[in-house]
Amino acid sequence: VRVFHFLPFGRRGKSAETREGGHSGKRHTREFTTIFHNWILGIRNSLCARSLSGLDITTNKLPLSDRRAIPHHLLGDFDPLAGEVSASAFRSHAAAVISSVISRGNLPLVVGGSNSFIHALVAADFDPTHDVFGYSRNRVSTEFRYRCCFLWVDVSFPVLKRYLSKRVDEMLEAGMVRELAEFYDPEIADSETRVGLRKAIGVAEFEEFFRRHHPKGREYKEGGDPVVASAYKEAVRKIKENTWKLTKRQLGKIGRLRRAGWDLKRVDATAAVVAVLGSEAAEKRSEIWEAEVVEASVKIVKRFIA
């Protein structure tokens, strides 16, 4: 059984999966859908927040138009009102999806996600009572129940930080505040317990804003009351700050996997991301992505499936 796993974006010298709120990976899920389209994949998500239905912009779910008619699994499949999705439940659901994809003669592609969920999915000796990232004496499994290829798309630290900031801005422009305003419920906003979608980055940061200023979506950031505008900017600042904090935590987790012996195949996408951040024309950005990321990735995967 062969499973291909794509790790989006990291720090040079380390690897990172960059968020649970979903602020970095949709574009690259789309790109890898294009890269590996000819292998007729079944793609499944491994990010906790994206597995829950709702808040599609905030959790960065890939729209149908970008999926190239390839089946995508565990994107909004779980009811957010049913409580937390445990690592054990994820392992079980994901294994069933992988078996289904393989039974049709296709190659499962696992994109992004929670490091805890990835470990739970592939570990041969998974123990749900042990948090391998929370306690140093708990051993990271180095025996896998699948034959895995881990592809790590790496980006230098300063460039990654700039890209994450830009990605948040793009999500805001796409209607993230309006989506969060519709999700906001003053009756539960004061609850200290955060489960499901309420753990997604963006929800808590804007709850304080909505508590003080009745949500009216995009109007908040342009003109009007300077107090409201200041509060909006503070909420955005917190989203970017918390996204970066989560990135650094995930860096530590991925470092733990590498030290345990996980073989992550590194592909450097720094030049391609710099082009996205700069003023390069779309054609030039595409050329850099093809040369620096696509060709290297295809070589790795071809060796894996040979």
Low-pLDDT residue intervals, each spanning 5 or more residues: 8-28, 34-51
Count of all domains: 2
Fraction in helix? 40-55%
- How do the strands of the widest beta sheet line up side by side? 3-2-4-1-5-6
State the CATH superfamily name of the largest domain: P-loop containing nucleotide triphosphate hydrolases
Shape: globular
CATH top level of the largest domain is Alpha Beta
Mean pLDDT: 76
The major sheet is characterized as:
6 strands, parallel
| Element-by-element helix/strand order | EHEHEHEHEHHHHHEHH
CATH fold-level name of the largest domain: Rossmann fold
Portion in strands: 5-15%
Number of strands: 6
Structural class: alpha/beta
Do you know the CATH architecture of the largest domain? 3-Layer(aba) Sandwich
Tally the helices: 11
Radius of gyration: 19 Å
